[in-house]
Amino acid sequence: MIKILIGDDHAIVRQGLKQIILEGKGKCICGEAENGQVVLDMLDKEEWDVVILDISMPGMSGLDILKEIKKVKPRLPVLVLTMHSEDQFALRSIKAGASGYLTKDSAPEELIKAINKVMDGGKYVNQQLAEILAADIERKAEGPLHDSLSDREYQVMRLIASGKTAKQIADELALSVKTISTYRARLLEKMKMKTNAELTYYAIQNKLVE
C-alpha cells in the first residue's frame, strides 16, 4: 500500500489532493499535516513513500521543512506543490532537495505523473522549470542579485515587496520584529539597495512577486 503524506495548511486543498490521488492511483494511504512541525512529527512516527509539500505554511517555511526532511530522510522523495510560479521558488526547491516542483494550477493528471516519477527515483520537471535549470547551469558567476540571498532573506524580501509591514512579516513567519529588521538590513546590503521601494521595483521587474 502506497503511503503519501500531504503537507499543506489548507484543509480543502488537502482533501482535494487526496481525491485526485485516490482517483489517479487507486488504493493508497494519504496522511495530512497542516504545518511543518506536524510533517516532521509524522515522518518520525511512520514510514512514507512520498511527501507532497507546500512552500507557504505558518511558522516554518516549506523550504525549511524540506531541508529538515532531507536531513532525516535523505532518500524520501519530496514533491513541492505550491501556488508560487517556477520563477519564484522552483530553483531553490530543487537545490534544497526536492524531487519535483508543481504549481497548484497544474492538471490532476500532471500531479499523478509527477508522483509516479519521483516515486520511481526520478526528478519531475516541466518545460518551464527545465529551462530555468538549464539557464542556471549556463549562468556566469555573476548571477542576479537575489541569488546571493539566503532562503529566509529571499522570503523576507518577497514579503516586503508585496507591501507587508515588519510586524505583519514577523507574525507570518513567527519571528520577532527585531529579527525581521536584521534580515532586511542584510538583504538590502547584499542587494546594494537602501529602501523598500528599490526592493519592490526589483522584485516586480524580476517577477519575484505576483
Model description:
The protein is of the alpha/beta class and 210 residues long. Helix content is 54%, strand content 12%. It folds into two domains: 2-138, Response regulator (Rossmann fold), CATH 3.40.50; 145-205, Orthogonal Bundle (Arc Repressor Mutant, subunit A), CATH 1.10.10.10. Strand 4 (78-82), helix 4 and strand 5 form a beta-alpha-beta unit. The longest helix has 15 residues, at 11-25. The N and C termini lie far apart (39 Å).
Q: Concise description?
A:
The chain is 54% helix and 12% strand. The protein is an alpha/beta fold and 210 residues long. A 5-stranded parallel β-sheet has the order 2-1-3-4-5, sandwiched between helices.
Structural class: alpha/beta
The average pLDDT value, as a whole number, equals: 89
Helix count equals 10
In this structure, how is the largest beta sheet organized?
5 strands, parallel
What is the highest CATH level, the class of the largest domain? Alpha Beta
How is the CATH topology of the largest domain named? Answer: Rossmann fold
Would you list the SSEs in sequence order as H and E? EHEHEHEHEHHHHHH
- Please report which band the strand proportion falls in: under 5%, 5-15%, 15-25%, 25-35%, 35-45% or over 45%: 5-15%
- Strand arrangement across the biggest beta sheet: 2-1-3-4-5
What's the CATH H-level homologous superfamily of the largest domain? Answer: Response regulator
Strand tally is: 5
| CATH architecture heading of the largest domain | 3-Layer(aba) Sandwich
Uncertain stretches: none
